Amino acid sequence: MYEAGYHSITNIDYSSVCISTRSSMYSSCPGMTWHQMDVRQLSFSDASFDVILEKATLDAMMVEEKSPWEVSPDTACFIHQALSEISRCLKPGGRFVSITFAQPFFRKRLYARSEYDWSIRHQSYGEGFEYFVFVMTKGEELSTQDAALEKSLLEGPSPAAASAVSLQQEDKEDFLSYIDP
């Protein structure tokens, strides 16, 4: 980004080792600053940034999740704190760009909250091994579809869905035992 002409770049990382190493590596880049801090407690003023870019920070927060279908309450809280801080630090009309391998079905569930005060767009890149770029624009409303997603997530499953009977019986056979060598 620096070589492309973007010189006012603020970098943060939780790791002081990373910050120290990168700060030394890019010391010849005036305008680029490095700060060790937790994304859940950013020390920047409200509406400080036109663009906030994250690549795999949220993925790292999700690494201990056992299933992408259901995020644990602790991780959901952790990510909510991070996204609240990111939203707070964006200027009106500012953009939060998130780059991830997480499919839109899973990631939009985290981003679609009206309290963040942003709209959500996404694009996929690559074939076979895609990655996704999400762009949230501060001050724009969620789309009708994203607002419905937020509502369904906040309301939780309906009583009928919670008591639904599975149509598939549990596998109790060891199919691998029947394979001839």
From TrEMBL:
It comes from the Eukaryota. The keyword Methyltransferase applies. The keyword Methyltransferase applies. GO terms for molecular function: S-adenosylmethionine-dependent methyltransferase activity. Residues 5-97 form the Methyltransferase type domain. One of its GO terms (biological process) is methylation. Gene3D superfamilies: Vaccinia Virus protein VP39 (3.40.50.150). Keywords: Methyltransferase, Transferase. Belongs to the methyltransferase superfamily. This is Methyltransferase-like protein 13. The lineage of its organism: Eukaryota, Metazoa, Chordata, Craniata, Vertebrata.
